[in-house]
Specification:
Helices cover 0% and strands 48% of the residues. By secondary structure, the protein is mostly beta strands. The protein is rod-shaped, with a radius of gyration of 32 Å.
């Protein structure tokens, strides 16, 4: 038995739903019993859930930007270890960097990831800009 309280046009009703047998429900409203005939149930339609693809990442200006993995810098390139968004570039072209020095801050999965220089050298090229969305393996900086 299920009990419900309803307020209709300012009037309160206490409704108790009893047994349901052959589409006839035993209902009690404010202590007065009723037999309520229910409509036959229509065949249930299967629910098909579809997933929408995620929206393409966008720059601060609103344009979709995804840097594709490239191989022009080869072994001298610092590559993105995972997909994300460039939050900050800590070096400029021509800067001398030491191994382990912070060069890029990458946001991935709502966390800031520090990307450090894998070797000593001079920054020859910066292949991304602040706000760019990058894929795993995208070249970020070339150090020679």
């Amino acid at each position: 038995m299920k009990e419900y309280k309803y307020k209709i046009n300012g009037n309160e009703y206490k409704v108790t739903v009893g047994d349901i047998d052959n589409n006839v429900a035993q209902i009690e409203v404010n202590g007065v019993p009723y037999k309520v005939e229910l409509e036959e149930k229509a065949a249930a339609k299967p629910v098909v859930k579809t997933t929408r693809p995620a929206a393409a990442p966008r720059t601060a200006a609103g344009a979709p930007v995804i840097s594709k993995p490239t191989t022009s810098g080869g072994a001298n390139a610092v590559k993105s270890p995972l997909p994300g968004t460039i939050l900050d570039l800590k070096v400029n072209v021509g800067d001398t960097v030491k191994r382990g020095q912070l060069v890029v801050i990458l946001e991935a999965m709502k966390m800031e990831n520090n990307i450090n220089s894998p070797k000593d050298g001079v920054v020859k090229a910066i292949k991304v800009a602040k706000g760019d969305s990058v894929l795993e393996g995208t070249e970020l900086i070339v150090i020679e």
